[in-house]
Design brief:
This protein has about 350 residues and is of the alpha/beta class. It folds into 3 domains: about 120 residues, HypD, alpha/beta domain 1 (Rossmann fold); about 150 residues, Rossmann fold, CATH 3.40.50.11740; about 45 residues, no CATH class. About 35% of the residues lie in helices and about 20% in strands. The protein is built from 15 helices and 11 strands. Helix 1 runs parallel beside helix 11, helix 2 packs parallel to helix 15 and helix 7 packs across helix 12.
């Protein structure tokens, strides 16, 4: 099967007779592409670059410092996904804060924060909401379950708060395509598309005249996605294809999307390396503001510069590959990560270190 797809890719690439740059938006795609040695299976004129599809990687250094601000508050438990533990802010990482006595609990689902809050009624539990459209429904359901208004209470949990860093993918892609770039096509994020649907990304074809396709994470699925893109480039037909149709539907999961916007609304938020991107994040609706850690703990405005020498920003924009950063594999390793792209399981630098070093 792989050999057959490779031959078809070779044929399409030969017809193009030029260099083609394809961005895989999803961090899980990046890890799969490098694990399966996909670049070595492709003709030399096909280049794959990573995009801003790793939630931890695009969390700004300022947001990391907001978490550190909260760790210094008495009677607080931080509940977070494990990938966030080693991301450094100006005060170090959450792992460092743990060593200094902060209580930081690793969770695998936002709903676990409800149990932590119920089991620790004398503590304030702060749920770190980091992710894209994939995880946003679970955070929304957690807050709905906690109870927003007296008449709507389910569990009426009063000691749960959320530090919200949720983002949505299309505005970041729009920002990349609206800036100077040499990108020809996109492999769209499979996990996000399960929730949003493939049609969510139509703007890439309609506004920017670039083809894109939703694809899965196995080697043959990734290669089929690349093949679909090369065909569209040869046809000069920018469309949004779906080679993952057994999992992703055109309209996505409407119930999950509805759940997101029952609790959150679109807002301007900061992305690492991009700055503020308009309408690229989610903030709590007014009826859910009682859960806001920003408001409850009076977190001040924090402006933290990126780590010196770190080039995560350019990696996330597809401008460079990780090995073009002077820190890569030397000062910056998974054991001593300078930037978040070396920390997260979805981080491009980490994947390069593990599979290409």
């Amino acid at each position: 099967m792989l050999n057959k797809i490779q031959k078809l890719i070779k044929s399409e690439a030969k017809l193009l007779n030029r260099k083609v740059k394809i961005m895989e938006v999803c961090g899980t795609h990046t890890a799969s592409i490098l694990r399966y040695a996909i670049p070595q299976m492709l003709p030399k004129n096909i280049e794959l670059v990573s995009g801003p599809g790793c939630p931890v990687c695009v969390t700004s250094a300022s947001d990391i410092d907001k978490i550190h601000f909260l760790t210094k508050t008495d009677d607080v438990i931080i509940a977070t996904f494990g990938d966030m533990l080693k991301v450094r802010g100006s005060k170090g990482s959450l792992s460092d804060a743990r060593l200094k006595g902060a209580q930081v609990d690793v969770i695998y689902s936002p709903l676990q924060a409800l149990e932590i809050a119920k089991n620790n009624p004398n503590k304030k539990v702060i749920l770190i909401a980091c992710g894209f459209e994939t995880t946003a429904p679970a955070f929304a359901e957690t807050l709905k379950e906690a109870g927003s208004q007296p008449l709507a209470n389910k569990q009426n949990i009063k000691n749960l708060f959320v530090l919200n860093m949720l983002k949505i993918v299309p505005p970041a892609m729009d920002a990349i395509l609206s800036s100077e770039n040499d990108l020809d096509a996109f492999l769209l994020p499979g996990h996000v598309s399960v929730i949003t649907g493939a049609d969510y990304f139509k703007f890439i074809a309609e506004k920017f005249q670039k083809p894109a396709t939703v694809t899965g994470f196995k080697a043959d699925e990734i290669l089929l996605g690349i093949l679909a893109l090369l065909k569209r480039l040869n046809q000069k037909k920018p469309t949004i294809d779906n080679t993952y149709s057994n999992v992703v539907k055109a309209g996505g999961n409407k119930l999950a999307m509805q759940k997101i916007f029952e609790v959150f609304e679109v807002a301007d938020v900061s992305w690492r390396g991009f700055g503020i991107i308009p309408n690229s994040g989610l903030e709590l609706k007014k009826e859910y503001e009682k859960f806001s850690a920003i408001k409850h703990f009076n977190i001040p405005e924090i402006h933290t510069p990126e780590p010196k020498g770190c080039m995560c920003a350019d990696v996330l924009k597809g401008k460079i590959t990780p090995n073009q950063c002077k820190l890569f594999g030397k000062v910056c390793t998974p054991q001593n990560a300078v930037g978040p792209c070396m920390v997260s399981a979805e981080g491009c630098c980490r994947a390069w270190f593990l599979y290409k070093s």
